[in-house]
Automatic annotation (TrEMBL):
Residues 11-34 have a biased composition (Basic and acidic residues). The chain crosses the membrane at residues 85-108, 425-447. InterPro entries: Bact_polysacc_biosynth/exp (IPR050445). It comes from Acuticoccus sediminis. The keyword Coiled coil applies. This is Capsular polysaccharide transport system permease protein. One of its GO terms (cellular component) is plasma membrane. Keywords: Coiled coil, Membrane, Transmembrane, Transmembrane helix. Residues 248-275 form a coiled coil. It comes from the Bacteria. The keyword 4Fe-4S does not apply. GO terms for molecular function: protein tyrosine kinase activity.
Length: 452
């Protein structure tokens, strides 16, 4: 506001105008400056000249200019073309879609009944108590990690094509969701391809997994309460079959390698036993070791007899001549015993350069062969025992890896329709359209201001 817009008022109009504090203060100062100063008379009027002169008349104070603001200028109300377009576009882009969606859910949408089921994938706990803290922590971590992975597998399987095909063949999926009483938007067309059936199933069913608690929440919607319950039961049944199959496969994988080792060790042990039995049948003796011990004892006995006879021969020679019959008899008996000892030793020892003895094979060869077969049998037996222990440990570990589906809230037939959520979708459509409309209006306004 400038001074040109101020209008002076005459003095007569000051009464109806309210003066400010500054104006009142300036007025009082002006009156004090122009007021006459009083002079007191002295007693000796004769000696002092009369210095009082007639004071000139005070000048009247200047009139105070009081200003008032002019009345507010009334501007003419005009609406631009852009404002008209914005209003019409708001009605068409925001209000109209919200009304259409609200009308659909109020007058056309069919009620949908939903079942909620809660289940989780659990494993067998280790109750042996013979594990230290680190091992228990590692085992618990591995078990929890496996359960989480299996839970995600079940979640993806429920929403997969395999589940849709199972529901089509075993739960009348197409008939349940293509009933004539359903509204056109949510009604299923049975002729659509399997990929679109999977998308429709993902719209009518949802699976949420809570990572903290490990609980899977299954929600299934249908146009009838009984249909929702039947679909839910079939989904849970197929999920249980999947978890059991995963658990069985894990147990078989962990045991298969150990079982293969046991089979190889068992075959080796059986072959070793057969070889020992065949050797005994060919040699006609149970154990060459026992035979060698027996022959060694025979040789020892013969040598002791020879020692006795030699003592006797020495005693006889001291009293008889060498040609006496007694001496000759004892000498011949000693020679016979020595020949027998040599023969026994030859039967035990290895033949030299093809020297053939009465036995088909000398005892040392048979004994060496027998020891090789017995050693092979012992090694095969130890391997068989070790692999069998490994198999038992693998089976125990496989039992720890067992998984099962624990269902603690099974979805029953609902009594009240909870879908579709009309208010939620109307609000979503309205807010979404409003945000899009506002973004477009801002861009249009910016372009308009740039052009003008």
């Amino acid at each position: 506001m400038t001074n040109n817009t101020l209008v002076p008022l005459p003095d007569g109009d000051r009464r109806g105008t309210r003066m400010t504090r500054t104006e009142r203060r300036q007025r009082r100062l002006a009156e004090r400056r122009h007021a006459p100063v009083p002079v007191e008379p002295e007693d000796d009027a004769e000696t002092l000249p009369d210095l009082r002169e007639e004071a000139p008349a005070p000048a009247p104070p200047p009139p105070v200019q009081v200003f008032a603001l002019p009345p507010r200028v009334q501007l003419a109300k005009t609406t631009s073309r852009f404002a008209h377009i914005a209003r019409w576009s708001f009605g068409l882009c925001v209000i109209l879609p919200a009304i259409i969606v609200a009308g659909f859910y109020v007058f056309m949408a069919s009620p949908q009944y939903a079942t909620n089921s809660l289940f989780s994938v659990r494993g067998s706990a280790d109750s042996s108590g013979a594990m230290d803290g680190a091992g228990l922590f590692a085992a618990a971590g591995g078990s929890v990690g496996t359960e989480i992975a299996d839970s995600f597998i079940v979640q993806e399987y429920i929403l997969s094509r395999a589940m849709v095909q199972s529901l089509i063949s075993e739960a009348n999926f197409l008939e349940v969701y293509s009933r004539p009483s359903a509204d056109p938007y949510y009604r299923l067309d049975p002729t659509i391809p399997i990929e679109n059936l999977v998308k429709y199933w993902n719209m009518m069913a949802s699976v949420e997994y809570d990572l903290e608690t490990g609980i899977l929440t299954l929600t299934v919607r249908a146009f009838r309460p009984g249909d929702a319950e039947a679909i839910t039961r079939k989904v849970i049944e197929k999920s249980e079959d999947l978890v059991n199959e995963i658990s069985l496969r894990a147990r078989e994988d962990s045991v298969r390698a150990a079982q293969r080792e046991v089979d190889l060790a068992e075959t080796r042990y059986a072959d070793a036993r057969k070889a020992v039995a065949a050797f005994r049948g060919d040699t006609q003796e149970i154990s060459p070791e026992k035979t060698a011990e027996t022959r060694q004892s025979v040789v020892g006995n013969l040598e002791s007899e020879v020692a006795k006879l030699e003592s006797l021969l020495t005693a006889l020679r001291s009293t008889m001549s060498d040609n006496s019959p007694r001496v000759i008899y004892v000498r011949n008996q000693i020679d016979a015993l020595r020949q027998q000892i040599e023969a026994e030793r030859r039967r035990v020892a290895i033949a030299d350069q093809g020297d053939v003895v009465n036995d088909d094979q000398v005892l040392t060869e048979r004994l060496s062969r027998y020891e090789e077969l017995v050693a092979e049998r012992e090694f095969a037996l130890n391997q068989y025992q070790s692999s069998y222990e490994t198999l038992e440990a693998a089976r125990i570990e496989a039992l720890k890896q067992q998984r099962y589906l624990s269902v603690f809230v099974r979805g029953e037939a609902p009594e009240e329709a909870t879908y579709p959520e009309a208010l939620r979708w109307v609000a979503i459509v309205g807010v979404t359209c409003f945000l899009i409309w506002g973004f477009c209006i801002l861009i249009a306004a910016a372009i308009r201001d740039r052009i003008t």
